[in-house]
Design goal:
6-stranded mixed sheet; Rossmann fold; DHBP synthase
Length: 375
């Protein structure tokens, strides 16, 4: 047994492996267990809660269950809050839970209390799982926790997970992939970031790592990059960047990051799109779902560049957060350049909102001709 424990306590460690497994359970729609000191609780993402599970969990909860909601969702429910909060659930009422977690016109119906350490860990782990950030927490005794058979994670390991994911970035494969406008291209695959997902560094041409390298951090956008969605300019930015780097004597590196929906995941992105079709802008739609303006972290992207031998960059972005993140991670950002897609009737409000609410460096005059200046 000690030999097995030594294997688990290797570079990643048993506690972090336990978080990986709990994330998988929650994404699969199953409950898991969290320990925080002497406290123990079953946690379950609200989006996977059905009548059968509600009945079974109610039998365990005995009136002590609670619903944990993030601050953006609480603000949408009518509270001025900057911190998450807890709603008591005397009964596990599916209709009430869905109303508090999802309905656009809902208003808070009970007092909201502060989070315990186990509540904070529960909210963090559902965020890591890329599911809706609303979680059912059912306190249990130590005896019940030991007997329930659920996968378990420690709260401390959950809070350490994001930072450890950067340290654990590993290059796992590479190979040439000639592209239509960039035949001399290599794809380098890293495994890591949150949830051990694969991240791609696309090395175009032969960049000289001893000089500033042209770089773009591009968050994956299935709808725009692959299908040419008119709701954003992501596809244009992706292809224009590749072409620019191919024509640039020094080449460049495009990091294709698994950050769908500004880090909220594809399912939540589609929920947000539905809300946008009802009149919400991109950030208000995310807030209705309980998300802050941007869930992405770029520290692991900087780690990818460092592992490729990059120390100095010319970054292609409109997002000042990306510029600051690269600098904070220790890279020398010698310049930043804009990369603009085409505005159209479907995406002009989106582009203007990013400019006005998130400070993206987007040409105002370019948008005004489409009426964006009136938004």
């Amino acid at each position: 047994m000690s030999d097995i424990k030594n294997i688990l306590d290797g570079e990643r460690g048993a506690s972090q492996i336990a978080v990986d497994r709990v994330i998988s359970e929650l994404r699969s729609g199953r409950p898991a267990l969290i320990h925080a000191g002497r406290s123990h609780a079953i946690v379950m993402g609200v989006e996977s809660l059905d009548a059968r599970l509600a009945i079974r969990l109610a039998g365990v909860a005995r009136g002590r269950a609670r619903l944990v909601l993030p601050a953006p969702r609480l603000r949408r429910l009518g509270l001025e809050r900057t911190e998450p909060g807890v709603l008591a659930l005397p009964s596990i009422d599916l209709a009430r839970i869905n109303e508090m977690a999802l309905e656009t016109g809902a208003r808070i119906d009970a007092p909201v209390s502060a989070l315990s350490p186990i509540d904070r860990a529960a909210l963090e782990v559902v965020r890591l799982s890329l599911i809706l950030p609303a979680v059912l927490v059912v306190p249990v005794t130590a005896k019940a926790a030991a007997e329930c058979g659920l996968l378990v994670a420690e709260s401390a390991a959950i809070f350490e997970y994001r930072g450890r994911s950067v340290v654990d970035m590993a290059l796992v494969g590479r190979g040439p992939v000639p592209l239509e406008c960039a035949p001399e291209t290599e794809f380098v695959i890293f495994r890591g970031g949150e949830g051990l997902r694969d991240q791609v560094a696309i090395v175009i041409g032969k960049p000289d790592m001893s000089k500033p390298v042209t770089v773009r951090l591009h968050s994956a956008c299935l709808t725009g990059d692959l299908f040419g969605s008119l709701k954003c300019d992501c596809g244009d930015q992706l292809r224009d960047t590749v072409q620019f780097m191919a024509q640039n004597e020094g080449g460049g590196i495009l990091l294709y990051l698994d950050h769908e929906g500004r880090g909220n995941g594809l399912s939540n992105k589609m929920r947000a799109y539905k809300l946008q079709s009802q009149g919400f802008d991109t950030y208000d739609a995310d807030e209705v779902l309980g998300f802050d303006h941007d869930q992405r972290g770029f520290d692991f992207a900087a780690e990818m560049l460092k592992q490729l031998g990059v120390s100095s960059v010319r970054v292609m972005t409109n997002n000042p957060v990306k510029i600051a993140a690269l600098r904070t991670s220790g890279l020398d950002v010698v310049s930043d350049e804009r990369i603009l897609g085409r505005a159209n009737d479907h995406n002009v409000r989106y582009l203007a909102t990013k400019r006005d609410r998130a400070g993206h460096l987007i040409d105002v005059d370019n948008l005004t001709q489409y009426g964006a200046g009136k938004d």
